[in-house]
Amino acid sequence: MIGQIRNFLLVIVVGLLGACSSAPQRTTVMPPTDSSIGAHSRVVDVARSLIGIPYRFGGASLRGMDCSGLVHYAYRQIGVNVPRTVATQRRNAFPVSLSELQAGDLLFFRLGGRRISHVGIYIGEEQFVHAPRTGKRVSITRLNNKYWKKRLAGAGRFY
Question: Could you tell me the residue range of the domain that residue 98 belongs to?
């Protein structure tokens, strides 16, 4: 009897652990709707309004922000919850082909080594808003800039 109870509990525990470790389901990116187009436009407007804010490592406010803090802040202003760090933003964004970029999409960069370490918000016309580095301010940069083009690793979308 005790052996049967132990086996039953073992089956329950293994089943629960399996459920906790399963990967979250992703849905496919749907064509833009009127509401997603509006969200794209709003996040671009917010990103543009942040131009001139000083870079601040770990910052995500008007006092200062780093690259992922800029993304987190801008999306939060339009009611979209986006993770705080570059790594989690990349992991949770729906991948987007560079040929299908839309204003409001995120651009991910490798600045050194293999890991993604920088993010910006695409605003259209081959430009993006980002918080470059210490001593700089939030600014607009062209995607065809040799430095950034060479380091572009991909794009993602949150709506």
Answer: 34-157
